[in-house]
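Exercise 7. Predict the structure of Tetratricopeptide repeat protein from Massilia violaceinigra.
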Amino acid sequence: MRRPPLSALTLAMLLALAVLAPARGQQGDAPETTASESSAPAEASAAGTAAADAPAHSDEEVAQEEKLYLEALRSLSEGRPDEATSKLSRLLEKNALHAGAWLDLAISHCELGNKAEAEHLFDQIAQRFNPSAAILELIGHYRNSGCKGQRAHPRSMSFKLGAGYDTNVNQGSSSSVVQIGGAGNLKNYELGPASLPRADHFKVLSGDFNQPIGSRGMLLIAQLRALRYNQVESQDTDSALLGLERPWSGAGWTGRATAAYGLVRLGNELYQRQAQVLLRAVPPLDLGESLGWSLSAGYSSAIYPTRRYYDARTLDLGTSLAIRSKKSTVVLSGGLLADRGKEARPGGERAGWYGGASLVALMGEKAIGELGVSRQSWRGDRIYSKDFIEIKRHQDTTQLRASLLFPVGTHSAVQLEVRRTFNRENIPLFQYDSRWFQFSWRTDNW
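Solution. The predicted structure, encoded as tokens:
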């Protein structure tokens, strides 16, 4: 079923205004019903109390009703007709004369495929509110569709094929000579070639698949990625991720909940298994169209089959602020981290923070540019290794990145990306720098 060109939210607001005008002239004859009565035959509800005798609603009740109505419109516009149906039914229990709610409830039932309920509500609207010709035309559009239901979002696939160059494939140490040993017994060691930076060209292929599930806005997410180096085959990487994402709302808050499970293969062996849950939330604040503020909370568990003492459980509490204009968006983000590992893990538990800023802007008529900077800091709570590296590890990683994307045709684009990474630590063995370049072709929205 195809919908009219306007979005559901804009459409619903316009329709509410259009229907309410003639509805006011009909209120003296319109019966007051509850939501349960609204599904009864029209002749049965005609015996109800006249609306003119109904008690007046207080300002607080009117405000609550409008708040509930706006929440229902938001659910409808975000592709959750089932939630919209529930909220609109509650609204009609409070105010059976809310003409906009009647129409939106009928449309929600039609989008859910509940043809009988939608047809009954369309009939009730025609009898109670004397709708205009434009509204009757819209009702006819939905009736002609057959109310077979529709997906909130279409299935989508995207692929990316790229090639590039990395100056430090293995995150090799910036120092060729390091000091190792216990206090008062430090010795200089010269690192072998395997521990020093190795540069190489690479090829990468990735794909993303999103499949809507049901009418509640749930999304199945699948991601695959394969990275191959020309010479350093030990750093070849394959990864796969499968996740579920679902929108939610309550008490004016909105957001998304995500659960995901992933595998990473490094070289010829399984390197990592990771499970993650993430909750994103948007507070009920009116910041205008140019600002968007959200909060997030995440928990992840990483298992390393061949390096079990590195296993980690990480808690992430973050926030982000988006500043939007007609041609650009700036996103500022930050958060706190807590990493709990096994007792035998070098350095013990860690605490940290992260922050970042990014700018995405339209350049010319089609090109899209992006600039970003991010910083992550970790602090270990005990010495890294007794008799080997007897200091607490402090790690600070800064990354600069930039990209240019040029659309080619309807579904494709070419992209140039560059990154510069500075990993600064108080343990010279782990310090490294890298430069990374990638040119890729991507195709989206299939």
